[in-house]
Design goal:
The protein is mainly α. The protein has two helices and no strands. The chain has a domain of about 55 residues: F1F0 ATP synthase subunit C (F1FO ATP Synthase), CATH 1.20.20.
């Protein structure tokens, strides 16, 4: 009976980690897509401001990507904390 309980816990942990990573990756993807799209629009309208726009876009994408990295860390914790 305990083997079944452990299997259910392992399955729930794997499902939680998968949901965490899947949902946690959607936000940064949408955010970075918006940032790059708007930066390219700005570069097309004002080519002389391309350097400043590119720098701000890269900084914004790096900050946005931390959300995805946090989701990865949480999903790894969900997967492997029971093993320790």
């Amino acid at each position: 009976m305990e083997a079944i309980a452990n299997a259910i816990i392992d399955a729930a942990r794997a499902l939680g980690a998968a949901l965490c990573m899947g949902i946690g990756a959607i936000g940064p993807a949408i955010g970075e897509g918006n940032a790059v799209g708007k930066a390219l629009e700005g570069m097309a309208r004002q080519p002389e401001a391309a350097g400043n726009l590119r720098t701000n876009m890269i900084l914004g994408c790096a900050i946005t990507e931390t959300t995805g990295i946090y989701a990865l860390v949480v999903s790894l914790l969900l997967l492997f904390m029971g093993v320790l």
